Amino acid sequence: MNRYHFNVTINGVKFRVNVNANNSVSAYGKVKRTYPMATTITLIRAEKVWNRSML
């Protein structure tokens, strides 16, 4: 599982959103479904989330 960080702008108000997803396309889709009125959605960075049970 990866964590994706996005900048979302709605009516000139900019804020950050964090989403857990398998790939960047599904992460973008989750953000788009959550914030359908967003004027811009920009991917900032992605990071790998390690599950302690995997170790």
Keywords:
55 residues; alpha+beta; three-stranded antiparallel sheet; elongated
Q: What does this 3D model show about the protein?
A:
The protein is built from 1 helix and 3 strands. By secondary structure, it is of the alpha+beta class. The chain has a 3-stranded antiparallel β-sheet, covered by helices on one side. The two termini are 14 Å apart. The model has no long low-confidence stretch (mean pLDDT 93).
Shape: elongated
SSE pattern, N- to C-terminal: EEHE
Low-confidence region ranges: none
The total of helices stands at: 1
- Tell me the helix content: 10-25%
Overall average residue pLDDT: 93
The chain-level structural class is alpha+beta
Question: For the largest beta sheet, what order do the strands appear in spatially?
Answer: 2-1-3
Architecture blueprint of SSEs:
Layout (H helix, E strand, L loop, with lengths): L1 E9 L2 E9 L2 H11 L5 E9 L7
Antiparallel strand pairs: 1-2, 1-3
Question: In a nutshell, what does this entry contain?
Answer:
The chain has one helix and three strands. It has 55 residues and is of the alpha+beta class.
